[in-house]
């Protein structure tokens, strides 16, 4: 079996995202409400080049500024040629402080799930919900990440408890939030990549079972 490092995983997910963005063009729909692919690309570039913009993605005091800068940049990418150049710019970015080459483990921790979700934001916006073929080794690393960050990803959406199941991976079950006395936890079951999509708010596009 091929051994996948964190650097291999993040490189593969970045390549998949770049290819998906190039194929879609600047005006394709995404699962991000109000965004076309050019908005998503603008977000990705600003996120890795302007820390204050990245901080505003989650809203708060910097939220309006982030939204304005993203929309302004996206407007510049409406032209297909400008869009293609921007996709290449994203592919060639060094990351924070040269993170992509100098600290691939940190790069993977920060960006693997982000890239995976945004790739599917483009792929599945057309209604085709077929899962992308993701190597089992990558799925395992995604599952490790989901188990360690599950409570943060789930937020307060499951106050009665949340259990994740990924059949075929080790360990196959992860209790993210224990159920309250007398309550039954929600169980989400599926491939790790599909669980990520669900936890990132793409419930209708994720191929999982809920019980």
UniProtKB/TrEMBL annotation:
What lineage is on file?
Bacteria, Bacillati, Actinomycetota, Actinomycetes, Micrococcales
What is the protein's species of origin?
Rothia endophytica
Protein name stated in the entry: TIGR03085 family metal-binding protein
Show the Pfam families listed in the entry: MDMPI_N (PF11716)
Q: Where is the Mycothiol-dependent maleylpyruvate isomerase metal-binding domain?
A: 11-48
Instruction: Write down the NCBIfam families for this protein, in alphabetical order.
Output: maleylpyruvate isomerase family mycothiol-dependent enzyme, TIGR03085 family metal-binding protein
């Amino acid at each position: 079996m091929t051994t996948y490092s964190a650097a291999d995983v993040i490189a593969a997910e970045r390549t998949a995202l770049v290819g998906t963005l190039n194929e879609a063009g600047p005006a394709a729909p995404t699962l991000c409400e109000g965004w076309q692919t050019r908005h998503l690309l603008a977000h990705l570039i600003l996120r890795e080049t302007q820390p204050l913009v990245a901080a505003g993605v989650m809203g708060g005091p910097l939220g309006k500024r982030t939204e304005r800068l993203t929309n302004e940049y996206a407007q510049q990418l409406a032209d297909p040629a400008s869009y293609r150049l921007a996709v290449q710019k994203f592919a060639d970015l060094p990351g924070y402080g040269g993170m992509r080459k100098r600290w691939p483990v940190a790069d993977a921790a920060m960006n693997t799930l982000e890239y995976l979700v945004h790739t599917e934001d483009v792929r599945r916006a057309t209604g085709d919900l077929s899962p992308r073929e993701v190597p089992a080794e990558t799925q395992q690393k995604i599952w490790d990440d989901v188990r360690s960050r599950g409570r943060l990803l789930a937020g307060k959406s499951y106050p009665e408890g949340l259990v994740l199941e990924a059949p075929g991976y080790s360990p196959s079950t992860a209790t993210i939030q224990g159920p309250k006395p007398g309550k039954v936890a929600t169980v989400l079951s599926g491939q790790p990549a599909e669980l990520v999509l669900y936890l990132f708010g793409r419930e209708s596009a994720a191929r999982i079972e809920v019980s």
